[in-house]
Amino acid sequence: MHPKDETELCEILSEAQDPVRISGGDTRSDFSIDGNGLSTLGLSGIVDYVPGALTMVARTGTPLSEIQSVLAAEGQQLAFEPSDYKSVLNRSGTSTIGGVFATNSSGARRIQCGAARDFLLGVRFVDGQGKLIKNGGRVMKNVTGYDLVKLMAGSWGTLGVMSEVSFKVLPAPGKTASLLLETRNHKVAVAAMAAALGSPYDVSGAAYLPGSGACMIRVEGFEKSVAHRLNGLQGRLKEFGKIELLYDQEAKSRWEDLRCLSPFCDVSGDLWRISVKPSDGPKVYEKAAFTKGFYDWAGGLIWGIAEPDVDPRLALNGVGGHATRVRGAAREIAKFHPPSKAIAAINAAIRKRFDPKGILNRGLMG
Description:
The chain is 27% helix and 25% strand. It is of the alpha+beta class. The protein folds into three domains: 6-171, 2-Layer Sandwich (Uridine Diphospho-n-acetylenolpyruvylglucosamine Reductase, domain 3); 175-259, Lrp/AsnC effector binding domain/regulation of amino acid metabolism (RAM) domain (Alpha-Beta Plaits); 262-327, 2-Layer Sandwich (Alpha-Beta Plaits), CATH 3.30.70. A hairpin with a 4-residue loop joins strand 11 (205-209) and strand 12. It starts with 5 loop residues before the first helix and ends in a 12-residue tail after the last helix. The mean pLDDT is 90.
C-alpha cells in the first residue's frame, strides 16, 4: 500500500481489518512485524520552510537527506543530530523525516539541546480508524496539543501514521573541535565527561570508546568561543589523562562515525541500546558482557554488541534504566524494555483509544 496523500491514507486505514506494517525508508529497524505493508514514501515533500523563523514543515516520507541539504544551504541543521542505522542494519533504503520522529532518533547533541521530540512542533496523522488528526502548530510559540505531539514522537507507528510534521531547526555551528582524552578506565572516562558537562563551557557531545581508550568532548560555535572553551576544558580535565585536540573535519568525522554506529557495521552479534544514569554506566557495561561498545551522552547511553544468547537487561537489575535490542536474532528476547504493570496498562489504554482495531505495527511495542 502506497498512499500518495492523506485522503488515500485515511481510506486505507478506515477499511483495514488485518494488521498493517508501517514503514518509511525502512532503515531504522530489523524487527519482524506481521501485516500488510504500508509505505509513507508517497507522502513526500517540504511544505514550508522559513529560515528566519527557524521552522520547517514536511511530509513524513521526505528523505532525511533532502531535509538536511535544504537546511545546510541556509546554514541550519537538525540540532538533535538523528542517528543513522542504515549501515549497521545493512539496509538499502533512504531514511525519512517521519521515521526520525516516529522513533525519536536523537544523537550525541541531545545532552546540549534535547531530543527529537523536543523539536517537534506539530503533527498530522491518521489513526487506526482512518481519522485524520491535527495537533500542535507550525511555529514555536504555538503549543496547542503539546502532549499529543510529544506522544507521537517515539511511538513507532503504533498510535497512527504520521503524514506531516512541523519542527524547529537551529543554526549550524561555524567551528567544531573535540578534546580527546586518553584513558582505559571506564570510571575515569565517565568522571571526565561529568566534569566537562558540569563546566561552563557548553559541551555539545561527550562520548567514550573503550576499545581505543578515547574519551571525546565536543565544543561548537564561533571560532574564538571554541578556542576559549577548549582552553578552559584542558585546564579542567588535565588531571584525568593525556589530552589531544582535533579540529573541523577530523573532529566531525569522529562524531559522524558514532552517529552512523560505524564501530558495529562489520561486527556480528546483537546490537543493544541501553539508557542508564551516567554514574551506573561502567557497572552496567561490565555486567552486560558486551564484546564491543561505546558510551554516549556522557555515559547515560550505552551501545553494545552481545552474543545472541545474552540478555543485557539482566545488568539493569537493582540499577534501573531500560534497554532496546536494535539488531539481532534472539527473537525470544523482547525488542523493547518490558514496562511495569502500571505503565503497560496506560500504554494499552492509549493504544485502544487511537487504534481500537489493534492493526498498527501489532506486537512491536508489546
